[in-house]
């Protein structure tokens, strides 16, 4: 083998190694970006968890549980001390939404959640009123 052939082989190996190195660096940069995105998501999730935990702790320790969600506030606005017990269909009508089963079942589920939170009382199956402390 002559010197020129050996130098050509070395140059070819250098080019291949350089290309392989560049590919690995690109992969490394891509992986670093993915890791940074996942780290940011994990930080956001940790903040969300802390915030929700704080809100829930405040709500549970409050003398009256807060109803923050607008749909629940709208439902509660339908109830008043002078108004009798309401069925899910009555609440649907008062809110101006449909009275199809899908609508009434959705409202009924929310009413049951409000009963579980002791904001409403279910005096008879399907009849909901404000609890006495809220009336």
Q: What is the helical fraction, as a range of percent?
A: 55-70%
Q: What is the tally of helical segments?
A: 4
Largest beta sheet, briefly?
2 strands, antiparallel
Shape summary: rod-shaped
Physical arrangement of strands within the biggest beta sheet: 1-2
**Unreliable stretches, pLDDT < 50, 5 or more residues?**
none
Beta content: 5-15%
Encode the helix/strand succession as letters: HHHHEE
**N-to-C span:** 101 Å
Gyration radius, to the nearest Å? 32 Å
Assign the structural class, choosing from mainly alpha, mainly beta, alpha/beta, alpha+beta, or little secondary structure: mainly alpha
Task: Kindly report the average pLDDT value.
Answer: 87
Instruction: Report the count of strand segments.
Output: 2
Give descriptors for this structure.
135 residues; mainly alpha; 4 helices; 2 strands; rod-shaped
Describe the structure.
It is rod-shaped and about 105 Å long. It is mostly helical and 135 residues long. It is built from 4 helices and 2 strands; from the N terminus they run H-H-H-H-E-E. The N and C termini lie far apart (101 Å). A hairpin with a 2-residue loop joins strand 1 and strand 2 (127-130). Helix 3 (88-95) packs across helix 4 (101-116). A two-stranded antiparallel ribbon has the order 1-2. The protein has helices at 3-61, 70-78, 88-95, 101-116; strands spanning 120-124, 127-130. The model has no long low-confidence stretch (mean pLDDT 87). The longest helix has 59 residues, at 3-61.
Provide a quick synopsis of the model.
The chain is mainly alpha-helical and 135 residues long. Helix content is 68%, strand content 7%. The protein has helices at 3-61, 70-78, 88-95, 101-116, and strands spanning 120-124, 127-130.
């Amino acid at each position: 083998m002559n010197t020129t052939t050996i130098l050509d082989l070395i140059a070819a190996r250098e080019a291949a190694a350089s290309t392989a190195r560049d590919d690995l660096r690109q992969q490394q940069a891509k992986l670093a970006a993915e890791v940074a995105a996942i780290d940011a998501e994990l930080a956001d999730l940790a903040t969300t968890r802390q915030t929700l935990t704080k809100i829930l702790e405040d709500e549970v320790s409050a003398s009256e549980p807060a109803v923050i969600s607008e749909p629940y506030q709208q439902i509660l606005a339908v109830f008043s001390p002078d108004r009798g017990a309401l069925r899910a269909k009555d609440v649907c009508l008062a809110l101006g939404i449909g009275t199809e089963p899908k609508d009434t079942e959705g409202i009924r589920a929310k009413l049951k959640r409000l009963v579980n939170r002791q904001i409403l009382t279910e005096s008879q199956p399907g009849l909901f009123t404000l609890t006495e402390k809220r009336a």
